[in-house]
Amino acid sequence: MPSGLGSVTGTRYRRPVRISVIGCGYLGAVHAASMAKLGHEVVAVDVDPAKIERLAAGEAPFFEPGLPEILDEALASGRIRFTTDMAEVAGSTVHFLAVGTPQGPTGAADLTYVDAAVAALTPHLAPGEFVVGKSTVPVGTAARLAAEVEAAVPGATLVWNPEFLREGFAVQDTISPDRFVYGVPEGADGERAVAALDEVYAQALAAGTPRLVVNLPTAELVKISANAFLATKISFINAMAEIAEVAGADVTALADAIGHDDRIGRKFLNAGLGFGGGCLPKDIRAFQARADELGVGESLAFLADVDATNLRRRAHVVDLATELLGGSVAGKRVAVLGLAFKPNSDDVRDSPALDIAARLQELGASVGAYDPEAVETARRLHPELDYAASATQALEGADLVLVLTEWTVFRELDPAEVASLVASPVVVDGRNCLDRDAWTAAGFTYRGMGR
Ligand code: UDX
Fold first, then answer.
1. In this structure, CATH architecture of domain 6-214
2. Strand (E) positions, 287-339?
3. Which entry of 52, 279, 337, 403 is annotated as an active-site residue?
């Protein structure tokens, strides 16, 4: 354990830190509740009164396993409060910035929310306090914001501490991450920032979680390059799926075989519809835009291919559906199982599944779509689709079944039962998550991805 720290008992740390979390989205809400779970005193702020009201009532504003439980626990302990009033952050030692950095019109990250959060925070900031960025930002942003904070409140320090949480595992990834990265300035301020963050993360550090102290641009790059690498790995295997499809190979067996090489690893080699969500797609575009600005666009030229390969998967499924329906989807009933960008999430941001459902509908199909958690979030973006209340309802009378998100309930469907519901037993397994032999044995024409 780092020197000067107290001991850890269970999930409660003996020296609670006063923390503010600015932004209560997928990142901030989980971070705030997790910090309270660790024993810290937390005030969480968001500009959206409806969101704050729900959180204060113990209701998670989105689906994330484990969040309702730690939220209830935090509220019952009195260690967390939610507010729209930025003035309430006054007196916190560590102020986490957890606002979104969506994709702007040019592909570059839109920093409106980050800039607004810093501007709203500085009037309530005192010397000796730390502003800790968690949002994914273009490299160079932290240095600019650090100068702004220092100019507004001399003695306050801005550092960058990216998060690597995965939706669906966000609580676990926040409380026990696989590493901590602190981007800090050189000198005494940086050292004090390291000590403050060590107190915040004392429990995981005591358990041996690696902690890397780097400069501000390195911290920013760690996050975006990790996501660029993951996106590249997925597009690599999807490119292999394209080859496998024409060569008669099986990409799943290929991934298993190359994955045995430790240097490659089996994780993130699942071919299918490619990546979606609030991070990977926008991050690779923002990264390219930033590299262009820095005059090193060529270094990331390959990410354009990564993006193109990823988007081709969606087009491929639309083409495949058209082929399987005899050349046109118009007037055909298509059951879409899965709308979220991945299982255990209700997030449909840049979701390949929802994208495919919407395109088929546009081409004249009658899409019956079902997802265990994402129907409401999907409906907001695509009200034109026919949302079913259950998988059974979506499947009834379908000319084609598309499994587009690998929820366990879809993996466990009984193909014989499905066969009794549909008009025509044809299935596209967009995530290679079904038992091909079982579906074939039940009479289905089965088409996977790259196999
Ligand atoms: C990602 C990063 O994993 C996380 O570290 C970062 O903090 C935020 O971005 P997340 O967006 O929650 O997390 O999802 P992730 O599990 O990475 O999946 C991203 C997308 O890739 C999903 O659409 C998923 O279906 C797809 N994917 C993942 C594949 O297509 N194949 C794979 O092998 C793995």
1. 3-Layer(aba) Sandwich (3.40)
2. 333-337
3. 279
- Token pair in block for residue 21: 């979390």
pLDDT digits (tens, 9 = 90+) for 167-223: 999 999 999 999 999 999 999 999 999 999 999 999 999 999 999 999 999 999 999
Residue 13 has pLDDT above 70, yes or no: no
Closest atom of ligand 1 to 352 CA is 23
Q: How far is CA 307 from CA 135, 167, 295, 419, in A?
A: 22, 21, 21, 36
Q: Is 0.90 topped by the overall pTM?
A: yes
- How far apart are the C-alpha atoms of 242 and 252, rounded to whole Å? 12
Contacts (Cβ under 8 Å, ≥6 apart) of 183: 142, 159, 160, 161, 162, 214, 215, 216, 217, 218, 219, 220, 222
CATH of domain 247-451: 3.40.50.720
CATH 3.40.50.720 boundaries in the chain: 6-214, 247-451
CA–CA dist 102, 100 (Å, integer): 6
Q: Alpha-carbon distance 180 to 75, whole Å?
A: 26
Name the residue at shortest CA distance from atom 28 of ligand 1.
Answer: 268
Catalytic residue status for 433: no
Span between the terminal Cα atoms of the chain, in Å: 49
DSSP bridge partners of 42:
19, 80
